[in-house]
Amino acid sequence: MNGQNSIVEKFRAKFGANPHVYRAPGRVNLIGEHTDYNDGFVLPAAIGFYCWVAVGPRQDRKLVISSEEFPEQIEVELSAESLRPSRTWSDYAVGVAAQLQKEGFGLSGANLLIHGEVPIGAGLSSSASIEVATAIALAEESGLSIDRTRLARICQRAENEFAGMRCGIMDQFISLHGRANHALMLDCRSLQFEFVPIPESVRLVICNTGVKHKLADGEYNRRREECEEAVRSLAKVLPNIRALRDVNKEQLEQHRGVLSEIAYQRALHIVKENERVLNGKEALRNGDLRQFGEYMAESHVSLRDLFEVSCAELDLMVELANAEPGVYGARMTGGGFGGATINLVDARCAAGFAENVAKAYEENTGIACATYICMPAEGASRVESAEQAR
Ligand code: GLA
Questions:
Q1: Which of 87, 108, 212, 318 has its CA 20 to 30 A from that of 297?
Q2: Can you give the pLDDT at residue 329?
Q3: Nearest Cα to 23, choosing from 7, 43, 10?
């Protein structure tokens, strides 16, 4: 049964009414890692794994939220005081409701059934997909028309404030704005974006390491602080800068002395990664996949050695990928400390690539490796018919 039919039936069984169904995709980032919260550039694509939300109205001012993945049902009043984090799976959905109301969007009571199919802990933005699917479901069912970029901001703030994860805007933005067969180049300061076609001759192959190291969220927030520290130090000699986005390589080298070694390394990654996104976008536009793949390789090395967010499993997965025929580029994707790699692979080689890498990874680590062969998918939408859900 496809995602829509199954969730509709379960919603009927649970709430005794016909729901509307919305879905929002996860994402993979081709290049531009940890640059979003530095006002920089990213190049993600939505992928065909979704969070599905079935929703129906209630007469009272409550949200009743069920999930196909978790047993307990959550009930909250739509008043500001009762919309608090509970440190459970429902925080992403409740956080979005709280943020919508905080920003002046009055919500109606609703029953929600959530089904997430984006692999959790794989660095493919399962949390953003829940936030975005909930946000469009609640907004539309409450008769609110909210610009998608604004919705992305609302979902990001929900995650910052409710889940305590100081993420940037990339994941929520691509989940809302993704376009089939295109990556999206986003300027995370102006929030202007452009679509970059992905040639039919390649596939995005995602290889999941199956590990998520515990330190991930804490280290993520720490990286963000280290970047902020670098900006504070550099601003003493470069008073016009607001973020690492405003610093170029020459300035960084010239003023290296004002930075701690760690801050310098983090800043160097960001400065060069931003360059790689801009150059990489041009390479993709020109069909120069080999060049794009080199930027991916440089990005991985930089994330490993300068930004220090990779791990042994990710490094191994990249090494195994690079030994395969038909691969243009391989790197870790997302926040790091486990999760998945993204590989740009010749379409004709993709199936063999996925099989060989998974086998070699399992032989080396004893951990099963899930692989996904993808092309970019459409962003979040209401699902009008069963056809669209397939
Ligand atoms: C996570 C965050 C994003 C981004 C990436 C790293 O996915 O949610 O905002 O910072 O890590 O590029």
A1: 212
A2: 98
A3: 7
Angle, CA of 192, 376 and 31, to the nearest 5°: 60
- The Å distance, Cα 108 to ligand 1 centre, comes to 31
Nearest CA to ligand 1 atom 11: 335
- pLDDT recorded at residue 387: 44
Q: How far apart are alpha carbons 97 and 114 in whole angstroms?
A: 14
Query: Tens digits of per-residue pLDDT, 241-278?
Result: 999 999 999 999 999 999 999 999 999 999 999 999 99
Q: Which atom of ligand 1 is nearest to the CA of 169?
A: 9
Catalytic annotation on 346?
Answer: no
Distance CA 54, CA 295 (A): 41
Pairing of strands 370-374, 202-212: antiparallel
What pLDDT does 20 receive? 97
Q: What angle, rounded to 10 degrees, do the helices at 126-141 and 148-158 form?
A: 120
- 12 alpha carbon to ligand 1 midpoint, in Å? 36
For ligand 1, residues with CB inside 6 Å are 29, 33-34, 36-37, 125, 167-168, 170-171, 334-335
At CB < 8 A and 24+ separation, what contacts does 240-246 make? 242/39, 243/38, 243/39, 243/40, 243/189, 244/38, 244/39, 244/40, 244/270, 244/271, 244/274, 245/35, 245/38, 245/39, 245/40, 245/188, 245/189, 245/270, 245/274, 246/39
**Atom 10 of ligand 1: nearest residue by CA position:** 34
Report d(CA 250, CA 95) in Å as an integer. Answer: 42
Calculate how far, in angstroms, residue 253's C-alpha sits from the geometric centre of ligand 1. Answer: 26
pLDDT < 70 regions, the chain: 1-4, 385-390
